[in-house]
Structure formats: structure tokens, C-alpha cells
């Protein structure tokens, strides 16, 4: 019996050891299975990694959704910043345009009055014509540069032609647009003897409407430079009147008219601003009691001298 009890005890111990080993094995499998479920999310066997995953060390969680929102937000901020810069640039550009608008000294309408056209006005029937090359020569000669004119000019008042020529005698490299307008100047024999034709060149593509009286019938032009600082500030009516009288009585005028009448007094309705090329109406009186209607414009002459361009009407214009 003692031997039987001993065997029974040993057998029980072996069974307990085997059971314990089996349990331990089962616990390990359960834990392993739980780990596999956690990794696969399906509780099944883990699928083999792809070649790409093996090279990259396995697929990593993606932050694209969050980073995409951040990136989009960043793009919006960058765009907003660019828009702000563009708006600032537009404002700065507007300021530049305001500073460069006509009205600055560099934007003044410059003029050139050519009284000797080198043509015979009495030959042939009708008004003579200046060929475009000859017209370009008249524009270029005072500058010592070159000019081009698109069309011939009919030498008859009211006619015009477009040209391109130098900007100043000091710098003939840059060019600008000019318009050549046929005008009249007093005849050498006197105001009552009629007129002869001349050409008034002015910068821009056409003569401003405010100065159109300079090309009207019975208006004859003369002018006089009075210094580089003349007209630097707007002139009052009395200042214009005094300078106009000086133009009429000067022997150095573009077309001298001092001996054509005994000019005694000039009165003007308004002053002149040299930034705006237009005319103001004046009246010239003579010692004999005659009155002449005048149309006076700023004379920003091409040679750099500043003065007045004076259009003399007939006594019947009063």
C-alpha cells in the first residue's frame, strides 16, 4: 500500500506539472493572439509585409489630414500676404501716377514756331504742300537731331500732321510725339497786309482744344522768350498783360510787330498757368485808339526759353 500511495502521489504530481505546462502554453498563445489582434485589428493571422513596407520599415501612420489643413491654412495666409503686398504695390503705383500726371514741369506742352518754311506760297494753284521729309527737317533742325513725320502737311490753316522728334536740344537721344499745325503770322508789310503761313510744332498728338483759337481765321502769331524761370509759377492777369505788351513791342520777337502799331496798353481777363496749354483773352490798345483782340498762350519754347505765344486778331474781332 505504501508503494501504491507513493506512485499515486508521483503520478498526480506529474499530471499537475503537465497541466501547469499546458496552461502556461495556453496562456502564452492567448497573449500572443491578443497581441496579433491588437496589431491586425481583426484577431486573425498577420498578413506578410509588402516589399515596399519592408524597405520603408513598415507603413507609418499618416498625418496628411492634419498637415493638409495646416498647409491649406498656410497657403491662405501666404495668399493673404501676397494680396496685401499687391494692394500696397497698387497704392504705391497710384501715388506714382499722381506724381507723374500732366501738370508737372516735365509734362508742359512745348512749342516750336517755324516762320520760314522754305517754300513759295505764290506758285501753283491752291495751298502748297510740305513733304513729310521737309516737315521733319523743320522740326529736327533746332535740335541738331533727327525727326520723322508720318504725312505731308497741307500749308493751309487748320491742317496738321503727326511727327516724332527730339525732346530737347540738350538730349536728342529720347524722342517724343509732336504735332505740326499750319498757322499764320503777320506779313512783313504790316498787320493790314494779310498774313503768311507758318508751322507751329507742339508736343503731344494734337493741339489742345483749349488752344484752338491760335489756328482760327484772322489770328496771326508771334512770341517772345522771357527767361528760363518765366512762368515757373502761375501768372496773374496783370503779369500776363505786362509780358504781352513786352512781346508786342520787342524787336526780338519771333515775328516783330513793334513797328506795325503804336502799342500802348494790354489788359487781360485771366492769368496763365504754364502747366495747362490754353489761351486767355486779352485786348491791346494803340495810341491811335485802335483795339486788337489777343489770344495769349504759355510759351514753353523748344529751346528751353519760357515766354508767351501771342495770337493777334483783327480789329473786327473786338
If you had to describe this structure to a student in words, what would you say it looks like?
This protein has five helices and twelve strands. With 318 residues, it is α+β, with helices and mostly antiparallel strands. The protein has a five-stranded antiparallel sheet, covered by helices on one side. Strand 6 and strand 7 (195-203) form a beta hairpin.
State the helical fraction.
25-40%
Distance between the termini: 165 Å
Global structural class: alpha+beta
- Number of extended strands: 12
Could you give a short account of the major beta sheet? 5 strands, antiparallel
- Rg (CA only): 48 Å
Q: Give the DSSP E fraction (strand runs of 2 or more residues).
A: 25-35%
Major sheet: order of its strands? 1-7-6-5-3
Note the topology.
Elements: H1 2-40, H2 51-56, H3 64-100, E1 111-114, E2 129-130, H4 132-140, E3 148-149, E4 153-154, E5 160-168, E6 171-186, E7 195-203, E8 220-225, H5 237-249, E9 263-268, E10 280-286, E11 291-300, E12 306-312
Antiparallel strand pairs: 1-7, 2-4, 3-5, 5-6, 6-7, 8-12, 9-10, 10-11, 11-12
Amino acid at each position: 500500500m505504501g508503494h501504491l500511495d507513493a506512485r499515486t502521489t508521483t503520478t498526480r504530481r506529474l499530471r499537475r506539472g503537465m497541466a501547469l505546462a499546458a496552461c502556461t502554453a495556453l496562456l502564452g498563445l492567448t497573449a500572443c493572439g491578443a497581441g496579433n489582434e491588437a496589431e491586425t485589428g481583426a484577431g486573425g493571422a498577420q498578413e506578410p509585409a509588402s516589399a515596399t513596407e519592408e524597405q520603408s520599415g513598415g507603413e507609418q501612420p499618416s498625418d496628411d489630414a492634419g498637415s493638409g489643413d495646416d498647409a491649406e491654412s498656410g497657403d491662405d495666409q501666404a495668399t493673404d500676404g501676397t494680396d496685401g503686398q499687391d494692394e500696397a504695390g497698387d497704392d504705391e503705383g497710384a501715388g506714382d501716377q499722381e506724381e507723374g500726371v500732366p501738370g508737372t514741369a516735365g509734362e508742359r506742352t512745348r512749342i516750336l514756331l517755324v516762320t520760314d518754311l522754305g517754300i513759295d506760297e505764290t506758285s501753283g494753284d491752291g495751298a502748297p504742300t510740305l513733304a513729310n521729309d521737309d516737315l521733319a527737317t523743320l522740326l529736327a533742325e533746332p535740335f541738331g537731331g533727327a525727326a520723322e513725320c508720318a504725312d505731308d502737311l497741307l500749308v493751309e490753316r487748320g491742317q496738321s500732321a503727326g511727327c516724332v522728334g527730339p525732346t530737347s536740344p540738350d538730349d536728342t537721344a529720347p524722342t517724343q510725339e509732336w504735332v505740326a499745325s499750319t498757322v499764320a503770322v503777320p506779313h512783313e508789310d504790316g498787320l493790314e497786309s494779310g498774313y503768311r503761313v507758318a508751322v507751329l510744332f507742339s508736343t503731344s498728338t494734337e493741339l489742345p482744344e483749349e488752344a484752338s483759337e491760335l489756328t482760327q481765321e484772322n489770328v496771326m502769331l508771334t512770341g517772345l522768350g522771357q527767361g528760363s524761370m518765366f512762368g515757373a509759377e502761375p501768372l496773374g492777369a496783370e503779369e500776363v498783360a505786362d509780358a504781352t505788351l513786352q512781346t508786342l513791342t520787342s524787336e526780338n520777337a519771333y515775328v516783330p510787330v513793334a513797328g506795325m502799331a503804336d502799342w500802348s496798353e494790354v489788359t487781360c481777363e485771366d492769368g496763365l498757368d504754364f502747366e495747362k496749354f490754353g489761351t486767355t483773352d486779352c485786348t491791346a490798345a494803340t495810341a491811335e485808339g485802335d483795339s486788337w483782340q489777343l489770344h495769349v498762350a504759355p510759351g514753353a519754347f523748344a529751346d528751353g526759353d519760357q515766354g508767351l505765344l501771342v495770337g493777334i486778331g483783327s480789329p473786327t474781332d473786338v
